[in-house]
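Homework-ish question, so no full write-ups if that breaks the rules, but can someone show me the predicted structure for this set?
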Amino acid sequence: MLVRLIVRRLLFLVLVLFGLSIVTFSLSHIVPGDPARLMAGPRASKSAVDKIREKYGLNDPLPVQYVDYVKGVVRLDFGDSFTSRRPVKQDLQRYLPATAELALYAFLFSTVVGVPLGILSAVRRNRWPDHVARFISISGLALPVFWLAIMAQFVFFGKLGWLPDGERLPIGVDPPRTITSLYTIDALLTGNWEVLRIAVSHLAMPVLVLAYGSLAVITRMVRGGMLEVLNQDYIRTARAKGIIQRRVILGHALKNALLPTVTSLGLQIGLLLSGAFLVEIVFSWPGIGRYAVEAIQRLDYNATMATTLIIALVFVLMNLFVDILYLFLDPRISYA
Amino acid sequence: MDDRQIGRLFAAASVGRISRRQLLETGLRLGIATPVLTALYAAVPAAATASVASTPRRVPTRQAADSGTLTILISVGTEDIDPHYSYTTLSSTVALTTYEMLIEYAGDSTDQFQPMLAESWEASADQATYTFTLYPEVTFHDGTVCDAQAVKDAYTRFLLLEGGPVNVISRFVSDPEQMEVVDPTTLRFNLGKAQPLFLPAMASQYGPSVISPTAIEENKTDEDPYAHEWFTANAVGSGPYRLVENSLNERLVFERFEEFHRGWEGNHFEQIVFRVVPENATRRQLLEQGEADAAAYNLTVDDILAMKSNPVVQVVKYPSTAVTWAIMNAPRLKTLEVRQGFSYAFPYQEVIDGAYKGYLKRNGPIADSVRGYDPEVFLYQTDLVKAKELIIAGGFAEGDSFDFMFDANDERDSTVAQLFQANVQEMGFTLELVGVDYATVESTIFGDAPPEERPMFISWGWWPDYNDPWNQLAPNFTEASIGGGGGNSGAFVNPRFEEIMAAAEVYTDEAGLLTLMKEAQNILTEQDPPAIYYGQSVRYTVLGADIEGYYGNPLYLDAFPVYAMSRAGA
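A: Not a homework solution, just the prediction itself:
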């Protein structure tokens, strides 16, 4: 059953990517502007512009361009970026790890903090821990991540000077030897403690800002799930049997309360990746979000489409992972 | 800033203005930024007077991370730093850091020159031949010799590559053989006719950089005989700093070139870093925290006004040669009367006060710092009654709709668009605002689309490559500049103006040029306006209070004289 689920979802993934590629390709080409003219620059001769069109296949009819693009994507060749002039694949290898590191820690933080906070909020309902948790979750949902990022930077960098303004590492600090391309992990694996310390300090603010929205959602989901479960008969029965509170909550209630939360975790990946676009701009973070924004601004079709496809791929795969996890968490569920 | 200052910020923010215009402007600002953020950033106390002098105040509290590094903040990276091909301000700024021309404009002058590669130069009596004597024993960053032959080879590439700034040389030199290597330190340009503007052109920030012929040779390919692809991301010049890192979206890092022929006596920076920081608020904080040393014209005017009272930075303003305008689409606006009508409809004073906060000087198509400027140029005054009459007389009816394209990421442009819209609406017409990315504005203007497919108005501007009115006007208003890379996006054609431009291109007599330009400016304003001229921008650069040696040149906009700059006490 599991294999069938995976195969079916992977087939679905192909359809999703195919549909997305058509939408992204169409939208990219509807936007007014001429990337060849842009690359050539103001006052460049017509022949210079024509050369660029020829080089990047921009003279071909759109259906031909699309088919060529899809053929390339199948071979994991996303074409060349109009701005960096490198293969997009190379650019992704450069920028994706920065976003992955940001999103990974944001995801971990929001989960590790959000779940206990949600439990505490439900168990101490209408008391101060609940009020704190609700404040966090409401503000996390209400505050735009862009505004939060600027304010955090203003306070923690501008006013207090506790944290750096952004960037993965400051100028003059060499990254650790590449193993995973995640600086913190690589610094840890190579025992480069100074770089680890610097990398963590640079990560702290973007991670906290990015995680805040997800933390709010997770806290709310866990709280809601716990409140519902705690009122059910089997919990009352467990309590009547004299089982200690901690065991009732963690052993009986939490597992069932987490089911909707697990579903939302998959969606949080999408939230984190889209949030990263804005966070990376404010914190000058050299990730795929910033790369995508600049690609869109410079009519860089290939880079725009590649980043969209990559994000969709991650999103769909994470949701597949969540679905599989669901099977283990709740044996009643069947995807047959 | 301390807590008390923050309190003052909030208090200042609560002070409202109630005139219609000011109400609109305030609303615009609130719409652009988050209200609280705007309060924090736009409402900083601004009691102190502007610092316009280049002498800095020393403030020991500013925490410079590395006193030997000059960190300059830029808002976007540049994908092409090839000085012979790229025509962007940023790439020319980078070029002035790592390349040299033969000569450069001296200090803040627009008509005096000082040596770069050439220690002296001489024009023949008829101004048809120019002889440059180069400094001996100059080397490129790759260790090869920079002599007269190298300069000729580099300029041959500049000419044949046909990049954006090629007109800077091709106007004077059509064949590489016009460059004669007399001996290793002497290069002669045989121009064939009088060319009084050759020296100004050779000092342009766009193009005439000398790059290493060896690097060209080593990196060329069959498809790319001038190694343009390689030079988009790399640089090998003879300037004071050599490029050591170029990561498009992050930074460009230059280190001192120890063999630089002018030497390193005195106080200079060890390293120059152009750091890409996309967010305006972050750039401001970095400057105020001392984590960065400079930013040129990429902070909002509100930030600039606020920072003027902050002792840790200095705001240096200087006159520019840049004029901003809205291109009018002549075919779509039907008649001359309509273009004159919209020229009367534009809210000039409100734009100067509201969008530019005084950092704009009312003028026509040529800035007062450029040769040929007419101090009596005709300037339209806002008159909505007259404007409406002319627009209706020109073939439009009340209720008709017009469109205005502008760079939505530019705070000034956005404000201008909305102020103009308010006036157009007040006359009973509709102005549809089309806010797009800068890239779309640029590719629309320089693209090949017919006028019918272009907006009726596009917010734009221009400054000349060198001190020459023809170079300011021809790329924007001549018939030859319609489509195919030209800037005459409004498809403006005026036969008399064409005659004047043809004469101005080959002028030899300064007095005659002034007469021609006076007439040209009158055609482009009173008689047959192809654009609505907002004014001439006043440029500003923000520097750390401890930065010395900076000067702004009206022709080297947003550039930094990095070799002359230093940190006080370093």
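Now go work out the reasoning yourself. Hint: Chain B has 19 helices and 19 strands.
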